[in-house]
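quick one: pyridoxal-5'-phosphate bound model?
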Amino acid sequence: MKSTLRRTWAEIDLDALENNYYKLKQRVHTKFLGVVKADAYGHGAIQVSQKLAQLGADYLAVSSIDEAMELRENGIEMPILILGHTPKEQVDNLIKYHLTQTITCKAKAIEYEEVLKDTNKRLKVHIKVDTGMSRLGYLCDDEGFDNGVEGIYEVCCFDNLDVEGIFTHFAMSDDDSDKAKAYTKHQFDLFQRVCTEVEKKWDQSFKIKHCANTGAVANYPETYLDMVRPGLLLYGYGEYAQDLGLLPVMSLKTAISTIKIYPKGTSISYGGTYVTDKTTRVGVMPIGYADGFQRILSNKCTLMTEDGPARQIGRICMDMSMIDLTDCPNVDINSEIEIFGKHNSIDELAQIAQTIPYELTCSVSKRVPRKYIENNQIIDEELLLRFPR
Ligand SMILES: *Cc1c(COP(=O)(O)O)cnc(C)c1O
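yep, here:
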């Protein structure tokens, strides 16, 4: 579905994605898993996955079976790892769609094995180890070590589970404090000890051991093992992106819909949080918090115009927001404004909003059409609103 009006849109630069993939591949000489959960962090999982497939990536990861089936139904044939839990009622679909399921604990492994026993079907799985994220996975620390290793070994011996890989997730790999470095090192050492112990008992090696998320790809080359697993870096954001030569993939843009000149002393938008201190040329932009322009940014950020940065003023509303164009004489009705992207850093905006760039791209909502750009041309445009099927 195409969008009919020029309102607010997100440009997804597939050339930037290609640049980022190649830059990361220069650094990392292992298999490459691209994390495309949450609709590829808001960029569009189908288009991003198609591009990654074309570039030769090895694996994709999503959070749920629904996200995985969406990719399969749209022709993506690469291996896909589901990072979250899948109910046992869905095991048939896991097999039918050739999906790789994460095994996070004994109870789940037994459920899958019971569904599959007495069939000749085998479910491909990766085992998750909880080395300190304290979320999903087999606990293997301290007194739990032997127990954890034994539990993982049991799964390796199940007839109907095909254990291809094992992984863990770092909690602080993107933090360069001494405490975080020690924590990450502890997580990695523990993960390696677990792998070694299980492989000894099992008398086989895991084909794919992986743990490096964005922070680890940037900071800890020793953790690359058989495969890396970045999300954020692929999309070109975060404090490491620039040094690594990565480019932001998404640009969120809008176009000025109305311009008015207000005298000094005029209150702008809900609550009158901004009062003009001079004659002010105010532009109205058809973008608000329902599009993903966070209300917490009200009166706090500058946006990029063709005449340089301009201040957002007044409360950001659900569907609209205002900008001070007094010093931007060339900006007129229909002029493009970049909320974030190549000329207005999402990382700075995220900091002002007291959040992380992940949250800003993930919250670009479904009414914002995505325009996909390749070789400087729009090759695809998609609006995610529901229409009768
Ligand atoms: C989301 C996620 C990643 C990717 O994290 P980034 O910080 O975006 O690189 C990697 N592994 C797991 C298990 C995840 O949930």
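Residues 35, 37, 83, 169, 213-214, 229-232 surround pyridoxal-5'-phosphate (CB under 6 Å).
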